[in-house]
Amino acid sequence: MPDSASAQDTAQAERFNQARAAQAVAVLEDYAEMIGDLIEELGEARVTDIAARMGVAHPTATKAVARLKREGLCTSRPYRGVFLTPAGAELAERVRARHRTVVDLLIAIGVPPETAELDAEGLEHHVSDTTLAAFDAFLAKQPPR
Q1: DSSP letter, residue 43
Q2: What whole-number distance in Å separates Cα of residue 121 and Cα of residue 26?
Q3: Which residue, among 40, 41, 42, 64, has the nearest Cα to 51 in the 3D structure?
Q4: How far apart are CA 73 and CA 85, in angstroms?
Q5: In this structure, are residues 115 and 105 in contact, taking their beta carbons and an 8 Å threshold?
Q6: Residue 12 CB neighbour total at 10 angstroms
Q7: What is the CB neighbour count within 10 angstroms for residue 105?
Q8: Which residues pair with 81 in a beta bridge?
C-alpha cells in the first residue's frame, strides 16, 4: 500500500510542478507583452510604467525584468528603460496574437467584449497550438463583423 500512495504523491507533485512552471511562463509572457505595448505606445518601457500597468509593486516588476534579462528576452539601460531583444519582441508578438485570437473567439460565441478581454488574459497562456489553430479555422469561417 505505501508504494501506491507514494506513486500517487509523486504524480500529484509533478502535476503541481507543471502547473507552477506554466504559471511562471505565463507571467513572463505577460511582462514581455506589456513591455512591447509600452514601447509601441511610448517609445520605451520604464520599470515604473511596467509596474503601474501590471498593477504590481516596483520591486516585483524589477524582478520580472531581471528574469526576462536572464532569459535573453530584454535589455535595460540606466535612466532609459527596458527594451525587448529580437527574441523578446517575437515572444510579445506571439502572445499578442494568441490574445487577439482568444478574444475574437470569445466574442464570436457571444461573450461581451469586456469579459472576453478579461477571460483571454488567463486562457491565452494555456491554449495549445492545436487548439489555437482550431480557433483560427473557426473564426475564418465566420461572417465579417
Answers
A1: S
A2: 9
A3: 64
A4: 5
A5: no
A6: 10
A7: 22
A8: 77
C-alpha cell, 116: 472576453
- Tell me how long the chain is: 145
β-partners of residue 82 are 45, 76
One digit per residue, pLDDT tens: the chain, 145 residues? Answer: 556 678 887 878 877 777 676 677 888 999 999 999 999 999 989 999 999 999 999 999 999 999 999 999 999 888 889 999 999 999 999 999 999 999 999 999 999 999 999 999 888 888 889 999 999 999 999 887 6
DSSP string, 86-116: HHHHHHHHHHHHHHHHHHHHHHHTT--HHHH
Secondary structure (3-state) at 74 = strand
Structure-derived torsion over alpha carbons of residues 78, 79, 82, 85, reported in degrees to the nearest 10: -50
